Amino acid sequence: MPTPLDNALHSKNLFLGFAALVTGVTAWSIWGQDMFPAQEQKPTGAPETWTKGQLKQWLSSRGVVVEETSTKDQLVAMVKTILDNPPKSKA
């Protein structure tokens, strides 16, 4: 008499579930970050075209404290200063 475990191992559902899992993992490894971005994209182009939110995010990711009252022109100037004078790495 077959047990429930025997019936589960002979089930087509188990095979189809495993095939779906393998297909999903394969799709993730092939397309990865291009199709399924894990985080927001970094802003590109001239800092003048970035939004105020992008400017604040870019500065805060580099450890720069940004005041809430800063204008967009001030933020752009801060970004340009960092781009022109990148921090020196400790070696």
Automatic annotation (TrEMBL):
Source taxon at top rank: Eukaryota
Pfam families registered for this protein in UniProt: Ish1 (PF10281)
Protein name: STE24 endopeptidase
Upper classification of the organism: Eukaryota, Fungi, Dikarya, Ascomycota, Pezizomycotina
